[in-house]
Amino acid sequence: MCQNGRYTEHGIKGADGFARDRFPLDPTYAVGVPEELDELAVLTEPASVVAKAWEQIERIGARAHWSPARVLVTGAGPIGLLAALMARQRGFEVAVFDRATGGPKPDLVGDLGASYHTGDVDNAMQEPDVVLECTGAAPVVFDVMGISGPTGIVCLAGISSGHRTIEIEADAVNRQMVLENLVVFGTVNANRRHYQAAVDSLVAADPAWLAGVITRRVALDDWEQAFEGGSDDVKVVLDVG
To answer: What is the mean pLDDT of the chain?
Structure first.
């Protein structure tokens, strides 16, 4: 939430990451991880991003009498799958849209009790109450804004490459957002309480399902292989030990 941009963040901006055996940390900001999570605790950071997104969605929803029931998630990477997990933990009907037609993603979504869709996002779910956009793909971003239901909330959690130009009907987008009281907002990173909420969510999840999100482990000495995306990759982690 820094307004002037003069912040540092390990592994993201101005500070080294945590792929080392030892590092100093102010204990005020440390979040304890239950022993039962074991190596699955590596999912805490991406889960914290989603926990923050859900906190903001729920705060925005409190602007009026609002009873959400249907959630659309676009993108079935780690952020998208964890967004779907937290939506199902809240008891919502969930549809997940992704371009992958094979690999582990359809089964991971199905195991949550959600539906998996490819092709056109319009066919995934019409008039969802909440959309979590986790692809960053510009056409998908504007498509989900167009299909969102009245008083809908669209959370943008994906980051666009910035290298693509598309044409949109700006007047139509403006008219829909105003007349249907839509809210579109962006979110990234998290505060300490979101890390704690992430841990709580992971502890409540099926550990076998969480293990399925981690599709590949790479030794630290072979770290470059972690950036060579495979067709079946979801979450790739470094084995520091």
So the answer is: 91
**Where residue 7 falls among pLDDT bands split at 50, 70, 90?**
confident
Q: Does domain 45-186 have CATH number 3.40.50.720?
A: yes
Ranges of each domain in the chain: 45-186
Place of tokens 């072979």: 222
> pTM surpassing 0.85?
yes
Report the 3 state secondary structure along the chain.
CCCCCCCCEECCEEECCCCCCCCCCCHHHCCCCCHHHHHHHHHHHHHHHHHHHHHHHHHHHCCCCCCCCEEEEECCCHHHHHHHHHHHHCCCEEEEECCCCCCCHHHHHHHCCCEEECCCHHHCCCCCCEEEECCCCHHHHHHHHHHCCCCCEEEECCCCCCCCCCCCCHHHHHHHHHHCCCEEEECCCCCHHHHHHHHHHHHHCCHHHHHHHEEEEEEHHHHHHHHCCCCCCCEEEEECC
